[in-house]
Design goal:
By secondary structure, the chain is α+β, with helices and mostly antiparallel strands. Helices cover about 45% and strands about 15% of the residues. The chain has a four-stranded antiparallel sheet, with helices on one face. A three-stranded mixed sheet has the order 4-1-7, with no helix packed on it. It starts with a helix and ends with a helix.
Amino acid sequence: MRYFVAFLILFTSITGFSQQTLVQKKIFGTIINGSTTFPLSNVNIININKVKGTISSGRGTFEIDADVNDTLHISMIGFQSLRVRVTNDWVKNGNAKIELSEKATALEEVDIKKYNLTGYLEVDTKLIPDQENYRYSISGLPQGYEAGEYSPKAFSRVMNSIFNPADMLYNFFGNKPKELRKLKQMKKDNTVKALLETKFDRETIAILLGIDKKDIPEILQHCNYSEAFIHTANDLQILDAISQCYEQYKVLKK
């Protein structure tokens, strides 16, 4: 009987410990300007592994769900983005101070005139090409967005990629199943969603999907999205575009 009681106590202790380890941990941190040591507010922090996000407070502090070895992507306009791995010491101590370095940005010359317009409506309407583009429903755009030529061509491109192992979409969608499952998670977290709505640099999407951001335009071109969309859409719209293309790919793959 004594042995049974001792075993029961031991089993209960182990079970309780296991349950504690499964409880979601929160870590805390403070973001400061590396040059001035002043706290930075409204810094975006995203847990890449869990696709959870938060924003630093007016004092530069933040808290976020994270486990050991999770990676945090920290970004703010005007500062170099940073990726930080969560360590045992951070989880144990509960707090960490993180410095961001200011980014030296050189302004590039921008040509805002796409067409040489004359100011006369009858002449200018002939200068602007009329393209028949298929329209997709994209976040933030209530009436859809131009996305390449008519839909049958987009369908055929996705279909061709399934049977062509060398195709860009075949390699991308086939080799990134875990990352692509994050697409829906990204839109469920309001902080991540709000961040993507205001960004146009493709950096966050590339990191979350584990790809080079230079590959994103090529992926969208293979999905038959127009150049106008690729160059002007925000990151949330780009996310939707890749997600829709992936869903179409999965249906055809079956």
